[in-house]
Design a protein that fits this description.
With 1103 residues, the protein is of the alpha+beta class. The longest helix has 23 residues, at 261-283. It starts with a strand and ends with a helix. Among the domains are: 28-121, SH3 type barrels (Roll), CATH 2.30.30; 127-210, no CATH class; 324-379 and 389-477 and 491-497 and 506-538, 3-Layer(aba) Sandwich (Rossmann fold); 549-568 and 607-650, no CATH class; 653-682, no CATH class; 696-902, Roll (SH3 type barrels), CATH 2.30.30; 976-1067, Immunoglobulin-like (Sandwich). A hairpin with a 2-residue loop joins strand 33 and strand 34 (858-870). The strands form 12 sheets. Strands 17-18-16-19-20-15-21 form a 7-stranded parallel beta sheet, sandwiched between helices. It is built from 31 helices and 48 strands. Residues 220-321, 323-328, 598-604, 912-970 and 1076-1103 have low confidence and may be disordered. This is Putative ATP-dependent RNA helicase TDRD12. Its EC number is 3.6.4.13. InterPro entries: CS_dom, DEAD/DEAH_box_helicase_dom, HSP20-like_chaperone, P-loop_NTPase, SNase_OB-fold_sf, Tudor, Tudor_TDRD12_rpt1. Component of a mRNP complex containing PIWIL2, TDRD1 and piRNAs. Component of the PET complex, at least composed of EXD1, PIWIL2, TDRD12 and piRNAs.
């Protein structure tokens, strides 16, 4: 036995020691001290003539002497890696006497003098003899799990090995073999006067297994060196793991032979409980305390001890290393007595630092990975070699902000009993300034984020993940379907950014959790994971993982047996495995007997035969086949489409889908409970409130209840006669009388009542009445404020009877949705940050909005702006635009298809008349159509926050307009127009550039034009001097400017363009010659002396 001193530990298969004591192999401490003193004296004196001791070349593996800044002395070393740098070369060297890796500048490297090589390297490389690492292998086909050999040591084994050597008072080694300067030893540690063999301890803890003599001989790395043959004591070929010695008999899964029948049943129950105990023992680095168990025979002599054993096992659960988190957080909070089936499989490898893939029906549950990861994070020693600085060791990537928020709250809750981790919820938008200013809290160990947010942060903080060890992908099937590019960028960054050299003992773990398996996950396991554990507890997903062939055929129920047998006739001889499903035992036997008639049916084929009786399963089968990329019969698609259409028709009484209204699309139509089509009776009732029927064109709205950033409830305010203001005065006057302010004795559901709240009386409708609590005097009711749109809960005695005259006014609450904007990053819900911002900005304030569509009680507006009127200047200024505010915050993005999708629904319900459209042009032939009606079915771009009235010439409210046209909205602009004419046409040049959403309508004596340019809305609604041919008139874009060409009804010269004069319209003198010799203007009076035009005459013909 040789006493040793541990210098450096990488794993049980590679650690460096110093030999102590006496013997031929033992180091002489005095000789090494003398050697180092001579070396330092020599190289310090030779600094005057450095060129003589400087090496001419440097190569990997070269022996040299280097100066170590940490030890402040010259040391013998071996060059491992040469790295280039801008000013000089850095060389990574291994100090052979200290077992250290250090970077050294080339100027600090010297030639190794032969006299200083007289002593062997003091740091000796050891490994434990005849043991190898193990891992847990799961066989899903047989539903079994077994411990099998592995290639690398996991983090838990390394940590336990370090703990054994750290807590000992003496370390001894028994040398067994020497090969390539590596010593194979049995290692013994002494702690509390007890000597333990580390080799056997690792095997007992299931961190390793023994190698048989034959296996050890065939392994070239374990063959003794021919130069150093040692006599070895052979082990038996079959070695039984001594770990079983730690378990009582009933914990080994073997029942005693002398048990009676009743006792055997009790024993089986105890064995099931022991499975949990084994799992926790597997996670627990401390030895199992078996001395508290009573004698096995004594336990089974009295069956009453069963409860005592069960109680003890439950106590044992809460005393393992994982139980500190489970006991105080997870199990108590969720009242869980033991891990679930999936948790039992995935917790051990995750807690040991292995790469893991978990696919389960409960794959969206964060408790699959949070407890074991928190357990691993308690091992501070695993992270000592990480680079210094501030950065996370664990990164959890979620598909959306809602899931990230949930996991963040769980980490804060369950991390209270662990060491401080300071978790951070990282959700950033498109605002670069916000991303640049983000700073991590000191000591932040865990970051919860989304793929898009993380990549935005990495653009400005590229060194954020230098300390990252654990990467978790939550709901991986959603991540890879909606953000696959971003996820693979994160994985590549994780693989390339973190250096590998010198960090063998630092954990590197990727955990993937989800509900469905797909080909992208297979690519992740192959390219970014190292020997991963794949845990699949969902059998249908296991078939996808195993590439089981899926074949589907349709037939009538009466013909299914014959169809099945006919399909089997075409089965090739090399068919894959087949699984047949039948409805009865008789059918199973019939198919089995038929298949035995041919030898080629010894190999099976997977067939799923659907009949008309299986219609309820058609949608699910189609969904699964699409997931497996199987060939789908067209008949099944058509049949499923009919089934889904019938399900949608059954939802006609449901409200219109919220996501369809807010975003224009619903991602989960198959499972969404609401309807996704227009219902004429609900969306366009014959009798609707006055404010809804009048909600066309430009309206003034008052938001009172903010649902999210684009969805509000409020009222449409009529500035001429506000019916609700009159009602509010009447209600206040009515309830001022004490006789009218009497509580309702019996509240009825769906009835209207009065409610006094914050000095204001409201009309409310009762939605639900809750029963009185035991020993309670009052009962609660859920109410809806019918004039505001919000809901709440009050006590029944707070409601007052409402007279009929105060109920006559229809509910004034209207739902408003701002168009053409949606959440960033493919989210379907708005981030609470932007919702709070919009709520503070718009609630209770009047806004101007343009109605683009109305369905039922929902009004879509675009734009929605707050307008400030300057009466002295007779102009109006848009203070802000809701859509622009959302975009500027970086939490929203453009959604151009929003209203188009809703219009398609209306067209499918015969709501909208077909339109004859040319490029950016709509033509209406013979009847005048008001602009407001046209705006109901058109998508109009928003007003974009102009702060100054010029350069667009805002049109004052007193601008003349035709009786067929509504007043122009405040904040719109009349563009400058240049016109000229030919014999059969009149050309109008609209002097604005870079227009968007350009629209033009022609009437016989009228033209209407609208467009957006540089954040301003331009509107032209003019009555022409003469009539035109609407079907031949067009609007085009030439040289980035709109040009309207009017076809004259009569080929004659027009004296002017407009019937009413407009200062923004003038004749285009550049085309004076195009008008021919005859001028369309009267003769201009000229002052011969000043040679100037008479302005009054010209101005009379500008329009």
């Amino acid at each position: 036995m040789i006493e040793v001193l541990i210098l450096k530990i990488e794993d049980p298969g590679c650690f460096w020691v110093i030999l102590k004591g006496c013997g031929s192999l033992v180091d002489n401490e005095v000789e090494y001290r003398k050697l180092h003193a001579e070396m330092n004296q020599f190289y310090n004196q030779s600094c005057r003539d450095v060129d003589e001791v400087m090496p001419l070349t440097l190569e990997e593996g070269q022996v040299c002497v280097v100066f170590c800044q940490e030890l402040r002395c010259w040391c013998r070393a071996v060059i491992k890696t040469i790295m280039s740098c801008m000013e000089h070369c850095l060389v990574e060297c291994f100090l052979v006497d200290y077992a250290k890796y250090i970077p050294v500048k080339t100027r600090d490297i010297r030639v190794a003098v032969e006299a200083f090589m007289r002593l062997p390297y003091r740091a000796r490389k050891f490994r434990l003899y005849r043991i190898k690492p193990v891992t847990l292998h799961i066989n899903f086909c047989e539903d079994t799990a077994e411990i099998v050999p592995a290639k690398i040591w996991d983090g838990a084994a390394i940590q336990y090995f370090q703990k054994l050597l750290r807590e000992t008072t003496q370390i001894e080694a028994k040398l067994c073999a020497i090969e390539d300067e590596r010593f194979d030893v049995y290692l013994y540690v002494t702690a509390q006067d007890e000597k333990v063999c580390v080799n056997d301890e690792l095997v007992a803890k299931n961190f390793a297994c023994y190698m048989s003599t034959e296996e050890n001989t065939n392994n070239p790395t374990n063959k003794p060196s021919k130069q150093s043959p040692l006599s070895l004591v052979d082990f038996p070929e079959k070695v039984i793991s001594p770990v079983l010695a730690l378990w009582p008999v009933f914990l080994q899964g073997k029942a005693p032979q002398n048990l009676k029948t009743g006792e055997h049943n009790v024993y089986m129950l105890i064995s099931e409980i022991c499975i949990l105990c084994r799992l926790l023992q597997f996670l627990n680095p401390d030895p199992l305390k078996t001395d508290h168990f009573e004698n096995e025979k004594q336990v089974f002599q009295n069956l009453a001890f069963f409860n005592t054993i069960y109680t003890y096992l439950c106590v044992l659960i809460f005393n393992c290393s994982l139980a500190l988190i489970i006991k105080n957080n997870v199990l108590k909070s969720f009242r869980i007595k033991c891990p679930t089936f999936t948790q039992s499989y995935c917790w051990p490898p995750i807690a040991r630092g292995c790469d893991v893939v978990v696919i389960s029906h409960h794959g969206n549950d964060p408790l699959l990975y949070i407890p074991p990861i928190l357990t691993f994070l308690q091992l501070r020693g695993c992270y000592k070699s990480l680079p210094s600085g501030n950065g996370p060791t664990t990164l959890i990537v979620c598909p959306g902000w809602k899931k990230a928020q949930l996991i963040f709250e769980l980490l804060k809750k369950y991390g209270r009993c662990s060491r401080p981790l300071h978790p951070l919820l990282l959700l950033v938008g498109l605002n670069n300034e916000e991303v640049k200013n983000i700073k991590l809290q000191q000591g932040c160990e865990v970051i919860v984020t989304t793929p898009y947010s993380l990549l935005r942060l990495l653009e400005h903080h590229s060194l954020l993940l230098l300390r990252l060890c654990h990467l978790v992908l939550d709901e991986v099937e959603v991540l890879l379907s909606e953000a696959s590019k971003q996820v693979f960028m994160i994985l590549e960054y994780y693989r390339k950014t973190i250096p590998v050299a010198g960090r063998e003992s630092v954990p590197r773990q990727v955990v993937v959790v989800g509900t469905r398996w797909n080909k992208h996950i297979e690519h992740v396991t192959r390219e970014f994971m190292n020997d991963p554990y794949i845990v699949i507890t969902s059998m249908e997903e296991a078939s996808v993982y195993g590439n089981v062939q899926q074949v589907v055929h349709l037939s009538l129920n009466c013909d299914k047996i014959s169809v099945l047998l006919r399909i089997l006739d075409y089965t090739p001889s090399n068919a894959q495995k087949t699984l047949l499903f039948t409805n009865s035992v008789d059918e199973t036997e019939m198919v089995y007997r038929s298949s035995l008639k041919d030898d080629k049916f010894t190999k099976a084929k997977s067939i799923l035969l659907l009949t008309e009786r299986n219609g309820c399963h058609a949608a699910g089968v189609l969904h699964y086949l699409e997931h497996t990329d199987a060939k789908i019969p067209p008949e099944l698609r058509d049949f499923t489409a009919g089934v889904l259409k019938a399900k949608e028709d059954m939802k006609l009484a449901r409200p219109l889908c919220h996501y369809l209204k807010a975003l224009g699309v619903c991602k989960n139509m198959r499972i969404c409970p609401d309807r996704h089509q227009v219902n004429l009776q609900i969306d366009f009732p014959p009798k609707s409130s006055d404010q809804i029927t009048s909600a066309v064109g430009y309206v003034t709205i008052l938001p009172l209840h903010i649902v999210d950033a684009t969805n509000y409830f409020g009222r449409i305010v009529d500035k001429k006669e506000d019916q609700y203001a009159i009602l509010a005065v009447e209600m206040d006057k009515y309830f001022k009388k004490a006789s009218n302010k009497v509580s309702v004795e019996m509240v009825k559901k769906l009835s209207l009542y009065g409610l006094h709240e914050e000095k204001v009386f409201h009309r409310v409708q009762v939605l639900e009445v809750f029963p009185k609590e035991e020993n309670g005097f009052f009962y609660n009711v859920t109410i809806k404020y019918i004039d505001e749109g919000r809901t709440g809960q009050v006590q029944g005695h707070q409601l007052f009877p409402l007279p009929a005259e105060l109920q006559s006014l229809p509910p004034q609450a209207v739902e408003f949705i701002v168009c053409r904007v949606k959440p960033i990053d493919n989210e379907t819900e708005w981030n609470p940050k932007i919702t709070r911002y919009i709520n503070q900005k718009i609630k209770g304030k009047l806004h101007e909005a343009r109605v683009v569509l109305t369905l039922g009680n929902t009004v879509w507006v675009d734009p929605m702006v707050q307008v400030t009127r300057l009466p002295d200047l007779k102009i109006s200024v848009n203070e802000y635009n809701i859509r622009s505010e959302i975009l500027s915050m970086g939490m929203g993005t453009d959604n151009p298809e929003h209203i188009k999708q809703l219009q398609k629904l209306c067209e499918s319900a015969k709501m909208l008349p077909p339109e004859k459209k040319t490029l950016q042009t709509s033509t209406v032939a013979h009847h005048p159509t008001p602009l407001l009606l046209w705006s109901r079915v058109k998508v109009v771009a928003p007003l974009c926050r102009p702060r100054r009235p010029w350069p667009g010439r805002p049109l004052p409210s007193t601008t003349p307009h035709c009786c067929h046209c509504p007043p122009l909205p405040h904040g719109s602009f009349f563009p400058e127009i240049k016109w000229f004419q030919k014999e059969d046409t009149v050309t109008m040049k609209i002097k604005i550039r870079n227009v968007t959403d350009c629209k033009c309508e022609f009437l016989r004596n009228r033209v209407t034009f609208s467009a957006f340019s540089e954040d301003k809305f331009y509107l032209v609604d003019t009555e022409l001097y003469e009539n035109i041919l609407t079907e031949k008139s067009v609007c085009e874009i030439k040289n980035e400017e709109p040009v309207i060409i009017l076809a004259k009804e009569k080929k004659e010269s027009w004296l002017k363009l407009l019937k009413h004069k407009n200062p923004n319209v003038s004749f285009d003198f550049e085309h004076w010659e195009d008008c021919g010799n005859e001028s369309p203007f009267p003769k201009v009076v000229t002052n011969l002396q000043n040679q100037s035009l008479s302005v009054p005459f010209l101005s009379t013909h500008n329009g």
